User: What shape does this take?
Amino acid sequence: MQDQAIGIDLGTTHSLAAIFRNDGAELVDPNQPLVPSVVYFPANGTPIAGREAVLHAQDHPERTLFSIKRLMGKGPQDLSLTEQNYPFHLIAHQGLWTAQLDTDHFVSPPEVSAHILREILNQCEAKLGYRPSRAVITVPAYFNDKQRSATKQAAEMLGLRVIRMINEPTAAALAYGMGHLQKGTVAVYDLGGGTFDLTLLSITDGVFRVLATHGDTLLGGDDFDDVLMHQCLAEWQIETHQVSAQEKHHLRQNIKRARESLSQTDQVELVVSLGGLPKKHLITRKAFDDLIDPLIQKTLKATRKALRDAQLTAGDIEHVVLVGGTTRTPLVIQRVGSFFGLKPRVDLNPDHVVALGAAIQAALLDQQTQDMLLMDVTPLSLGIETMGGAVNKVIMRNAPIPARATEQFTTYMDNQTGMDFHIVQGERELAEDNISLARFKLSGIPPMPAGLALVNVRFQLDADGILTVEAEEQRSGQRAAIEVVPGHGLDMDSVRQRVLDSIEHAQEDIESIRIITARTKAQTLVLATKRALAQSQSLSPEERETISSAVRAAEDVIESKDVAAIESASEKLNQATQSLAEQLLERAFTESVRGKTVSEL
Amino acid sequence: MTLTAEQDPFAYFGLPATIRLDRAALDRAYTQKMRAIHPDVVAQDQKAEAEIEAASCHRAYQQLSGFRSRAEVILRLRGEFSAGKQVPPGFLEEIFSINERLEEGEDLLAEAETRVIARRRSIESLLEQNAPLSEVRALLNAYIYEENLYKQCESKEED
Assistant: This one.
């Protein structure tokens, strides 16, 4: 028999494992569930991960790696490290951050994560009596494909098979769904150290349906510390640049502790040493609340956007679940509570809830329990580039997966035997402004007049997020297909930016589309007229000249951005060709009836 | 023979083909189907087929959950061959004046919402009276315009 799959929350500061038992998920080691996400690499010998590694941080800061999750799948182009102040040395290797321990000793973030996972598996083996070989691992909702595959790579280094990766807020909802929330519309408010995510789900009869996700990748508890730090420095009349990186690190650690204790007490005195001098500042809960309120309002703005995407209002939400350590802040609980008019749920420990949800998904995929089902959505629209560079969206953003949709296309030139397809992802109206996923060609279309070929293009997006696109010409049965993985190289920052862009640029896009439509129409008309002119012998020289000059006039403005000019040139050309069209029609009719008896007509 | 999700989404979910659809009943039918056919719950050798059926089921659900797409399904089931472009008498003049007011920067959100709700009511009653399809189509075309107007006003509000 296969061993049981486990759930793992591979976190920034700590990691933990959970497993499904008879009627619910539980922590593998309830006494010491949290494994610090820290790895110490001694100069000689085996790397040490977890609690023991933390003990070496003081003496060997340059060999004790932490907060490695922030570096997963990232390179110098993604992240400024100035704020992070890692005490260990980082270099870029093939565009990705790598820690340098010695002149010839490098460790990649997936490798560091693998050591953390190994420690988790050791814990499992000690508690369960076997070493798990399969797991569901959670990732932040904003993680991009690179970050997701770096996570998967970490597991594979250990021979641990990842049966699925699920988003942390969704995992939290699953954990609440077991025994706590059987039905209703749920908002998961996930505020961590560095990021904010809001996920809306609908739960009916054990089916968990993700309705929308929104968030801010640059908003979290660290920002609370930032505003507090600036306020203290202002109080002491110290400029930020006068503080060394070392002191800043020391100050930040103390501020973080002060902030956390403000969740329990009404005031706290901060005492630090700066430039060799002791500095004190009394922080009251009230003053702290005033500082962070604008940041909390930002999370509520993202919340409103998610609600709009899901076509819901705050009043439709029946339960609010808080996830992430920063949600212990009293003002967060208060503001979120009054926004939804509900008391947020805190039944489950916000540090445990994600791992518990992962264990439930593992059991569901193993079909060990069938109590629940998780239904996810695709984060961005998928479409195809059409004539002139516009996008025809085939699968819309937030569509539930698996999804399937078919669009019909045709040829625009006579005897066209091939068609090129360009698959794009994003919300903008023009293909060039979206992400290019793949290109492929359908060839072997039998020659026929423009517009007669019928090409069905089918998109199929499966439960794992793999997209297959297939094109088939109906009359000849010619087919071509391609498989793409959408979301490659996309991170949630750019996902959000694209959504914002598409709203901001909507006007611009509409203008571009009007130009493209006008141009395409004019081009088609010019082409058709030239062809007809070449075929027709019965035109008078005057007629011929009138038409030719209308063609020239249209060609002159076709490349301009003046929609009115293009449209008016098309219109004039249309009028000029009226008699030509009638003649051609007449001739076509005569030809088609020639040699036929009246009764055959 | 059972009808497929594409042929008749109402029959597929075992629901009456009515515009005033019971949302709770639809959600129940949808989730019950999903629990039986989702690729995550079927045996390994049935997964490929399940991907296709689950996609049709999602689509049928989406069609029935939106007012406009639900009305389109009913018109098709009642035999509408192709959607005409007709609108109710006087509607074009109304659009004209609405567009003018929009250009002047007037906030029409509340008015758009009232229009959408009123239009839904009249479409519902026409469908229930088995009114001629072309009459329903005219109202539905007006509704499409009004719904877009509402969305436009709403997104303006957001910014």
Summary: Residues 506-535 of chain A form the longest helix (30 residues). Chain A has 14 helices and 27 strands. The mean pLDDT of chain A is 83. The radius of gyration of chain A is 31 Å.
